Amino acid sequence: MIDFSISPELEDIRRRITALMDEYVYQNEDKVIEHEGLPVDLERELQQKVKDARLWAPNLPKQWGGMGIGYVGQALVNEIIGRSVIAPRVFGSAAPDAGNAELLIIAANEAQQERYLRPLAAGDVRSCFAMTEPEVSGSDPTGLRTTAVRKGSEWVINGHKWFISGAIGSAFAIVMAVTDASAEPRKRASMIIVPAETAGFEIIRAVGVMGSGGVGGHCEIRFENCRVPAENLLGKVGEGFKLAQARLGPGRIQHCMRWLGAAERSFEMMCRYALERESFGEPLANKQTVQNWIADSAAEINAARIAAKTRASRFR
Ligand SMILES: Cc1cc2nc3c(=O)[nH]c(=O)nc-3n(C[C@H](O)[C@H](O)[C@H](O)COP(=O)(O)OP(=O)(O)OC[C@H]3O[C@@H](n4cnc5c(N)ncnc54)[C@H](O)[C@@H]3O)c2cc1C
C-alpha cells in the first residue's frame, strides 16, 4: 500500500514555501517581461531570499546547495511553486536547468562539474538541453540525425534541433548527437556539452508556442561544423539514450506537479469568480451546470495529484 501521509519536515517546508510565495512571489508577477521573465536584479533579490530561507533548488542534494528532499519532497514543493509562473526560477527549480543540473550530477566528471554544474546549481547561469529535431519524431529519439564525429582531440557536431527551451542566453547546451550510427538504436547517441559561444552553434529563432515562450524561448538551433574539445563528452560514448532517460524521468514529475499547482490556483480563481459574479439575480455558483463543471474539475485535479504522487513514490 502506498503511504500518502506527509512527514512533519515536509509539512514545515511546504508551509515556509507558501509563506514566501504569499510575501514575495505573487505580488511580483506583473513585473514579468514577455519572453524574458523577471528583471534580472529583482529575480536575483528574490532568489537570495529563497536561499537565505534554505529553500533553494528542491531537486538538488545539499552538497550542491539544494534541499536534498527526495522525489516525493520535490513533487510536493513543486506543486506549490507551480502556482506562479515566476516561482520556478525564483526557487531554482525551473526547467531545463533543474534537469541539466541533475544530469551533470549523475554523469559529469569533476572538472565538468566545477565548470558547468557549480554556476548552474547556484543560479548564476542558464543552460539548455538539445535533443529534439524537426526532421524526425521527438517521441522516438533513436531516429536522431545530428552527428558528432571525433576528429583528433575534438568532436565536430553537425545537425538541426528545435523546441530547445531557454536557448537564448544559455551559457551552454547539452547536446544529444549520434556518435556511432552502426550501433544498436539505443547506443547510437552520446551527450556532449557545447558552450554557447562556440563557433558553429547558431540559434535561428524562438519557435512560436501557445502562451508565453518563457525565459530564453523554445528555439530552433543549427550546429554547423561546431567543434568542442573531446573532454566535453558527458558520460561515455553511446550513453546518450540511457542518460536522457535518467534526466527526463524525474523531470516529468517536476513538470507534472507544477502544472498541478497551476491547475489548483486556476480552480481557486474559478470558485471565487463563481461566488462573486451574479447573473439573473444570483451568483454563478448557484447554477447547476456551473456546479457540475467545478465538481468535474476538482475530481480531475485530485485524480492527477494521486497519479503524480504515486509515480514520485516509486522513484524513491
Ligand atoms: C514547450 C516545449 C518545450 C520543449 N523543450 C524541449 C527541450 O528543451 N529540449 C528538447 O530536446 N526538446 C524539447 N521539446 C520537444 C519535445 O520533447 C517534443 O515535442 C516531444 O518529444 C514530441 O516530439 P515531436 O514534437 O517531434 O512529436 P512527434 O514525436 O512527431 O509526435 C507527433 C504526435 O504523435 C504522437 N505519437 C508519437 N508517438 C506515438 C505513439 N507511439 N503512439 C501514439 N501516439 C504517438 C505524439 O503524442 C504527438 O501527438 C519541447 C517541446 C515543447 C512543446
Describe what this molecule looks like in 3D.
The chain is of the alpha+beta class and 316 residues long. Helices cover 43% and strands 19% of the residues. The chain is built from 8 helices and 10 strands. It has helices spanning 8-25, 40-52, 70-81, 87-90, 97-107, 110-121, 240-276, 288-315, and strands at 127-130, 147-151, 154-165, 172-178, 189-195, 201-206, 218-229, 233-234, 278-279, 282-283. The strands form 3 sheets. The protein has a 4-stranded mixed sheet with strand order 1-4-5-8, with helices on one face. A 4-stranded antiparallel sheet has the order 2-3-7-6, with no helix packed on it. β2 (147-151) and β3 form a beta hairpin. The longest helix has 37 residues, at 240-276. It is globular and about 75 Å long. 38% of the residues are buried. Bound molecules: flavin-adenine dinucleotide. Residues 96, 129-132, 137-139, 163-165, 209, 218 line the site of flavin-adenine dinucleotide.
Summarize the topology.
Elements: H1 8-25, H2 40-52, H3 70-81, H4 87-90, H5 97-107, H6 110-121, E1 127-130, E2 147-151, E3 154-165, E4 172-178, E5 189-195, E6 201-206, E7 218-229, E8 233-234, H7 240-276, E9 278-279, E10 282-283, H8 288-315
Parallel strand pairs: 1-4
Antiparallel strand pairs: 2-3, 3-7, 4-5, 5-8, 6-7, 9-10
Helix pairs in contact: 1-3, 3-7, 3-8, 5-6, 5-7, 7-8
Bound molecules: flavin-adenine dinucleotide.
The site of flavin-adenine dinucleotide has 13 residues, from strand 1 and strand 3.
